[in-house]
Known about the structure:
six-stranded antiparallel sheet; five-stranded mixed sheet
Amino acid sequence: xxxxxxxxxxxxxLLVSSLLVLGAVVYATLRSYLFSGxxxxxxxxxxxxxxxxxDPNVLSRLDALSRISPNLYAQLVRAxxxxxxxxxxxREFFTVRILTSPNLGSSNFSVSLxxxxxxxxxxxxxxxxxxxxxxxxxxxxxVIAKRLKADPFGQGELxxxxxxxxxxxxxxxxxxxxxxxxxxxxxxxxxxxxALLAQRLVRRTLEPLxxxxxxxxxxxxxxxxxxxxxxxxxxxxxxxSLNRMMARLESTWQAQTQFVADASHExxxxxxxxxxxxxxxLRRTPLTEQQRESLEVVVxxxxxxxxxxxxxxxxxxxxxxxxxxxxVHVPTLLEQIQEEYARSFxxxxxxxxxxxxxxxGDPERLHQxxxxxxxxxxxxxxxxxxxxxxxxxxxxxxxxxxDGEGIPAEHLPRLFERFYRVDKARDRERGGTGLxxxxxxxxxxxHGGRVWVESTVGKGTTFSVSLMxxxxxxxxxx
Length: 478
């Protein structure tokens, strides 16, 4: 997942969390506010009924429950039971309806028996209940209940009653439901707009960094300064820091290149002198067998050192090569390689190349590439080397195939690194420096091509080089 998508998703996740928390807080606050207005209304109705029941006029007492607000329900029930004999199952406690408000009709409050027992013990309860209605859905109500002594029928004797007053919660539920619908719709719209805005904002924010990445990717192997944008923002500061870092890298790179070049030049003179004097001793002086063997070792190691110095000098100049690019006839190039190595190679070097195949490149450097690959194949104890060229859609591919010892798979990814050897002892015996394939890769990449290797131990190795195709030059008339 890209950084842009991660930032966008993180922003949306934070926004969703914020909307959920905000919605929960507002919902709880609104619900508390709506319910807070119900209790005073119920308490006022309860006091009103209680006062009317104490009226000296019997008719006023009987009509007490009908005087409350039309949106309230009330019921007066006669309770029977002994507080001291109430058991855990409450079998000795029951109620009988006495009076109801007109809008309640034949329905009853469905208050739990446990709550009625609490009221019977003298508590004032404020709880949720329901009204079971015939042929209609039950009605959720908020009720308040109180035990009182009254004589509603004027019998001259006060009796114990339970007065229950309730208010429907339909309006509260409707308000909360509508609020949830509106809030959900608004939240979805906000999230969609936020997603579009966040994506655009993140894209615009990361555009300078993507520009820096593109510029840095376009920089060649030699460090070069990035163009600095105007402004003093974080991106400009980043580019200035990168330019300072690349300036230090360039200074180090130049110093390293100069050191390798100077060291290579300085080493060639004493090595040449050593080879000259040892060759003189071998030719002009009488030597014992042991002395001759020692001098031959000196010659062999000096030759290897000379090749190593030459390769180091080649690599140090790789960044400053002046390639003489032109159309190179591949069959002619490979025939030269075949002729050059066929004299000393005991096996066979075969060619398989189209006659009219041309590539864009420097003939001297390409000769160096394929001569190095053929030399490596011979050192790998190959008995048959094939130089195969193919004309492909993207250009041309030249393959150097051998039936030598092969290379283990774990060595293939690092084969083109400098000084990397598959078998150091064996390569040293065969005169290898560990720089040949690094030079091959550098030359091929300088031509805009690519080199890769495939190998199987015991069956052989194939090096493939892709190059840009060129058109055959027109013959010049004299």
